[in-house]
Amino acid sequence: MSEGVYGNSDGVEDDEPDAMKNTDIDGQLYANVKAFKPRPRDGVVASVHVQWWRRPSGVAAVCLGLLCVLLLAGIIGLSVYYGVIGHHNSTERNQLQTSNNNLTKERDQLQTSYNTLTKERDQLQTSYNTLTKERDQLQTSYNTLTKERDQLQTSYNTLTKERDQLTNCKQTCPEGWQKFESSWYFLSTETKTWKESREDCLKRGAHLVIINSDKEQEFLFKLKKRVWIGLTDSVSEGTWKWVDGTPLTTPRYWNDNQPDSGDPSGEEDCVEIHKDWIFPLKAWNDMPCYWKLNWICEKVV
């Protein structure tokens, strides 16, 4: 079998004698194996040796190498990327820090300005409140002074009118007479009974005074005399009439509890203005007609 295998390995017959083959078979086998070179057959190329990269271990080594290269490239790329990103972030962080510092400084300045403005506003509000209070006080004082001025103006006008009346009276009134509104008044300097006083007024072309208004009553009261006026109930007890026959209606200026007709005989039939009572519109008092008092005559202009 060995002979067949190795004898045909060269594709030619061995011309050596059999004795040589038997004695040196081992050497021949070694020589034949060493010298063996397979011949190519038709359509087939044979090779004893296989390229290293086609071996499984070679493929693994190639893949591992490529993986290392890719990993190294990735690491380098990431290092470059993160280096750039880090530099960019550092620059941006510094810019943000600068912006933050600027904004903080501006905020502090704005806070200071706000506090200052708030303080000024409070001061202005206090000043405003003070001025408003002073204005109200001045307005009150102004209103008071205006009212007093109007009162003084009224008093001035009244006094001016009275002065003019007195001036006119001096020129036109008989001696002892004084003018008030549309009438002249004569105040006696002596005292007489009510009847005698009435007769005296008639002699002067006048009559005992007939009172028609509060102003006239106040004017007569200011004369500060106990004087007869032209009011009596001597004709019919309790029916009071003026000397011109006009019944007493209004106004009435009786003092409290007046008229009281005096004692039970009812002799208080004539009326006086009593100077010692407090209220000018409550100054009438009925008296006995025989009493002697001053009197007032009235003459309508």
TrEMBL record:
Superkingdom in the source lineage: Eukaryota
SMART domains in the record: CLECT (SM00034)
UniProt keywords, alphabetically: Coiled coil, Disulfide bond, Lectin, Membrane, Transmembrane, Transmembrane helix
Entry's transmembrane regions: 59-84
Signal peptide limits: none
SUPFAM superfamilies, alphabetized: C-type lectin-like, Myosin rod fragments
The C-type lectin domain, residue ranges: 180-298
Stretches assigned to coiled coil: 93-162
Classification via InterPro entries: C-type_lectin-like, C-type_lectin-like/link_sf, C-type_lectin/snaclec_domain, C-type_lectin_CS, CD209-like_CTLD, CTDL_fold
Spans annotated as Disordered: 1-21
Magnesium found in the keyword field: no
UniProt GO MF annotations: carbohydrate binding
PANTHER family membership: MANNOSE, PHOSPHOLIPASE, LECTIN RECEPTOR RELATED
Protein name: C-type lectin domain family 4 member E-like
Organism: Oncorhynchus kisutch
The organism's taxonomic lineage, starting at the top: Eukaryota, Metazoa, Chordata, Craniata, Vertebrata
